[in-house]
Amino acid sequence: MMTPLARQIQADFKRNEATCQKALTLLHLLSNKARFRIVCVLARGEFCVHEICEIVGGCNLSNISQQLKMLTLAGIIKKRRDQRRILYSLKDPRIAQLVEFLRQMLEAK
Prior knowledge:
Largest sheet: 3 strands, antiparallel
Helix content: 55-70%
Number of strands: 3
Order of helices and strands: HHHEHHEEH
Distance between the termini: 44 Å
Oligomer: single chain
């Protein structure tokens, strides 16, 4: 027999299935080191693929481009053309807040 609190939590879970799925998708996308680092870079501003590759370091342009495409298709980042360059940025500023929260929480003191 469940307690009233357990029943309430169960009802909340049933109501929030879509939210749960969105969270799992986001966390899955961020579980890749290259994608996580790209999101960390974009949390600080708008950059082209070459800048992102140089900032992240130890990677090749092709891999960064693939990860940017995946993040774009997932709706995490957006891109815009600036003359000859394509600039990438976070689509939702709350992602930057999440990255900052994780940094503060996990940074060595």
